[in-house]
Every structure is written in structure tokens, then in C-alpha cells.
Amino acid sequence: MPRITALQRVVQHVQTLGDPSAWEVADIQHDLSLALIDAVWSIGVRAGGVANVLARYQALRDDADGTPADLAAWIERIGGPEAFADAVKNRQRTSTTNGILKAEAVHREATLLAGAGVTDVSGLTDAVRELWITVPGQKSGTSWDALLIATGHDTVKADRMLRRFVAAATRTTEAKVSAARAHELVVAAAAELGVSARALDYAIWSYESAAPARRTRATASGSS
């Protein structure tokens, strides 16, 4: 019997996401400051938490112009990253081990992009990516991919959610699936299935975000 490849396993596992025609796809974010916040905060967390951060920020910013420079300046005006974290009621860190506040990562990224003269999506070049990954917690480039996805690029971000999905598909542990490998397999699976990589990324993220709720329902059902 021919050996099933890792790609074939991922393609098969995509069936758990349902009919691709029914997948929700995140709206393209034309406001670069919102895309930046989304990109940094979305790594490894459930969708609801990111939506709350964005909603709280928007409620505070009726004067925003959407540029990284404006975002960085506003964070400084309210007292810096610590105050920003308090304002959006989220003190998550980029890593549980020596990570900085995601609020600080956002401020650093906004400052770097502003310094590079980036004002809109057209400025998201490979050279700017090299600046982006110098911020603590962003070295893998996963949040950069998240920024590209948020602004409409057809790619995937190999964060914990994607790695967890690939690990389940290939019958291994998340720790054994590198970000690069997860990225490679999911992009290839999208091509194999003839679907948008961006749409598949969002479908996986939504599915994995809902995993705790599915486990809770399964436990409740099993104990009844």
C-alpha cells in the first residue's frame, strides 16, 4: 500500500473544516494601524480576544488616520505601551517565556514602520519585513505573514493554531511541527484543493479557536 504523504494527510484533514464555499473569509483591512494591531495580537490566540482589542482601540480613536506613525504617536500620548495595554484591557505577551507585552510589540512595530516611511500597504516590502522581525517575539515572521493576510495577501500565518492543525493531520505533536513546515504544507494543501490560502488559513484559525468549546461540549455530552 502506498505511503500517505504529509500533504495528503493535511488535505484529508481539511475536510473537517466543511465545505470551502461556506468558509467565512476575514474582510481585507485597509487601515494599516488596525492590521498591525491584528497581526501582533492574533498570534496563538482565539478570534474573540483579538476582536475585543480592535473594538476597544477603535472606540478610543475617532481621530485616527490609519498610519503606523499615527498609531505610535497615540500610544506615546496616552503614556506608552503599558497604558495602551490597559486601555484595550489586554496584557497578553508575545511569549510566555520572557515575552514583551503585545502592546509594546505593536508600539515598536508601528515606530519601525513609521521610521521606514510606511503609510499604506504598498510599503510592506521585503526590506520592511527585515525590520519587523527584529522586534522581540516576531523573529519567526509569523506575525508579518498575519499582517500580509490582514491586508489581503494570499498567504498563511504558521502560528500555534496552524501548527496544531497540521500536527493533528500528520499524527504528531505541535512541538514537532515547525512554523516553516506548517506554512509549506498548508499553502500546498490550498493549491491542491484549488482554494485561497488566505481563506484556508482563516478557516483553520476559526476551527482551532473553537476547539476548547468543542471539547467542553464533548465532555458534557459524555457525562450526561
Automatic annotation (TrEMBL):
UniProt protein name: Heme peroxidase
Domain of life: Bacteria
Taxonomic lineage from the root: Bacteria, Bacillati, Actinomycetota, Thermoleophilia, Solirubrobacterales
